[in-house]
Amino acid sequence: MSTTTAPAAIAVVGLRKSYGDLLVLDGIDLTVERGSVFALLGSNGAGKTTLVRILATLLKPDGGNAVVGGYDVVSEPAQVRESISLTGQFAAVDEVLTGRENLVLMARLWHLPDRDRLAADLLERFDLTDAADRRVATYSGGMRRRLDIAMSLIGGPPVLFLDEPTTGLDPQSRLEVWSSIRELARQGTSVLLTTQYLDEAEQLADRIAILHEGRIIADGTLAELKALLPPATVEYVEKQPTLEEVFLSIVSAGRADVHDPSASTSEVQR
Question: What CATH number should be reported for the domain whose range is 10-232?
Fold first, then answer.
């Protein structure tokens, strides 16, 4: 009995892009499997946003091929746009409206039926039900970002681009957004995530690519990338909590004031 393999969510071969004499993408190859999180790492100016803009049909490449959701980004841009959603670095939500009103408005723009039910389902999915009828101006950064991602899922796009989604968020908000991204992948959404945060890629990605000076210089699972380095030297050191661990522990315990630093450190270590 023969079996057929589903095509990749994103397939890029030899993609090139220049701005005048500045070569930004120099022969990019990458594949994002369906229902996976693919992290694209790179410093500022590496070409991450340019690549995303090409895959979202906002820019045309100078050469190479890119297929998203089964459609060519150059010859079938309308079909690509129907298959994707793009969330940028800053939440594109209306602060005057409530969370529910933002979602209903987006559903209306998509001409979707059952808008109230769809909004309620997304609010529950992203743990925003309790804040559904509050103005977004009162939301925390993490809540706004989660609402932004929820809005991007109106219409059920199979492919989601997240361009540095946790930029400017506090540690607790970052964890909330990470949880939402994991849930998206579990439910079958294919996610291309661009980030400068190495721990973000380590926590979320099924595969990781490193983009440097317009080229993919490494691509693999976290284990495969770690295997590129020499074997680690085993050393025994006393593990101290990071500042982030201290912060999250204190906040979750509801301790606004800590008067004895030595006592709080011992509590975090337990």
Answer: 3.40.50.300
